[in-house]
Design brief:
The chain has 2 helices and 5 strands. With 150 residues, it is α+β, with helices and mostly antiparallel strands.
Length: 150
C-alpha cells in the first residue's frame, strides 16, 4: 500500500498554532482599543442629550409662563409641564435669576443640571440653560460629549 505524504501532513495538522492565536488576539485587542473609547463617548453623549432635551422643554415652558404671568417661574413645579426626574442628572431646586436684564427672576432665569456619578472617566459636570438657551460660559460639559457641538 502506497502512502501519500500530503495526506499524512494535512491529517496530522488540526487546530491553530500558538503564533496564529497570538496574532488574532493582538488584532482583537487593537480593534477594541479604538472601539471602546468611542463607544463610551457615544453612551455619555446620549446621556447628556437627555439633559439638553429636558432643559429645552423647561426653557420653552418658562417662556410660556413669562408671557402669561409677566415674570419667570421660581420653580419647575410652577410650569405647565410634567418633568420626569432625570436618570443621570440632578436638577437644581428652582430657577436662579439670570445675568441678563436686572438680575432678577422677573426678566431672566437660569437652571442647572449636574451629572450624577462618573461614567466613562467623566466626572461630574454641569449643563446650564438660561432664558437665552444653552449657556456655554457657565456649563462645563466636555466637548466630546456635548450634543450641541456634534
Amino acid at each position: 500500500m502506497k502512502t501519500n505524504l500530503s495526506t499524512i501532513g494535512s491529517a496530522a495538522r488540526r487546530g491553530f498554532t500558538l503564533v496564529e492565536l497570538a496574532v488574532v488576539i493582538i488584532i482583537i485587542g487593537v480593534l477594541a482599543a479604538f472601539a471602546v473609547p468611542r463607544f463610551l463617548d457615544s453612551v455619555e453623549r446620549s446621556k447628556s442629550a437627555e439633559a439638553f432635551n429636558d432643559l429645552s422643554v423647561v426653557r420653552a415652558a418658562q417662556e410660556r409662563y413669562q408671557v402669561q404671568q409677566g415674570t419667570y417661574a421660581d420653580a419647575v413645579a410652577d410650569l405647565d409641564i410634567q418633568m420626569p426626574t432625570p436618570k443621570y442628572f440632578t436638577v437644581a431646586a428652582g430657577f436662579d435669576p439670570g445675568t441678563s436684564g436686572t438680575g432678577t427672576i422677573q426678566d431672566s432665569s437660569t437652571i442647572t443640571l449636574t451629572r450624577v456619578g462618573a461614567s466613562a472617566g467623566y466626572g461630574a459636570y454641569t449643563v446650564v440653560f438660561t432664558d437665552q438657551g444653552f449657556d456655554t460660559d457657565n456649563s462645563d460639559i466636555p466637548d466630546n460629549t456635548n450634543p450641541m457641538l456634534q
